[in-house]
Design a protein that fits this description.
The chain has 190 residues and is an alpha/beta fold. It is built from 9 helices and 5 strands. The protein starts with a strand and ends with a helix.
Length: 190
């Protein structure tokens, strides 16, 4: 059985008409459609489509980006389908994992994505190494300066002041304050 999946992003004001027509033309007997971001992992209609599919069925999408936002997510989904004996087709990209050439193309795309991630990782590592050699540290800037931490310590010594109150006074969240002061108030009193 050919099972279609159509998705539009919630905020775009699109409709699934174009996708639905293409999926029907491709021979889909059952089509699941929803409005959800592709980055969203929890997509109820996709989950229903995947649960509905049986060995020998084919999941069909209009374009690969309708199924997954990242290539990694796409490959994971296609592999999970393959393990269950379910094929995958993309109408626009003309990919069909049931044919040897479709499988090859899909794996070439996956290998290229893996290569791209490796190159990116190397660039990031080289950039961080260079920054360290220049005396800079990588990562997100700290929310609280040493002076802010000293103020927080001084305020938390007073029994009537709450952690939430100190955080609000310093303009940070309570969790940021706790991260900056491991052990919280108990550590200050010990």
């Amino acid at each position: 059985m050919m099972i279609g999946y159509a998705r539009i992003s919630k905020s775009t004001g699109q409709d699934t008409g174009l996708q639905m027509d293409a999926l029907r033309k491709a021979g889909c007997e059952r089509i699941f459609e929803e409005a959800a971001s592709g980055a969203q992992r929890d997509r109820p209609e996709l989950a229903k489509a995947l649960a509905f599919a049986r060995e020998g069925d084919v999941l069909v999408v209009w374009k690969m980006d309708r199924l997954a936002r990242s290539l990694r997510q796409l490959i994971e989904t296609a592999e999970a389908l393959g393990e269950r004996g379910i094929g995958f087709q993309s109408v626009t990209e003309k990919i069909d994992t049931q044919s040897p050439s479709g499988k090859l193309f899909f794996h070439i795309v996956g290998a290229m994505a893996e290569f791209e991630r490796g190159v990116l990782r190397e660039r990031v590592r080289a950039g961080l190494d260079h920054a360290r050699s220049q005396g800079r540290l990588g990562g997100r800037p700290r929310k609280m300066s040493g002076q802010d931490i000293a103020k927080a310590r001084a305020m938390l010594v007073a029994p009537g002041i709450t952690v939430e109150g100190v955080a609000a006074t310093l303009g940070v969240s309570s969790s940021t304050l706790y991260r900056s002061l491991p052990g919280g108030r108990q550590a200050l009193q010990g």
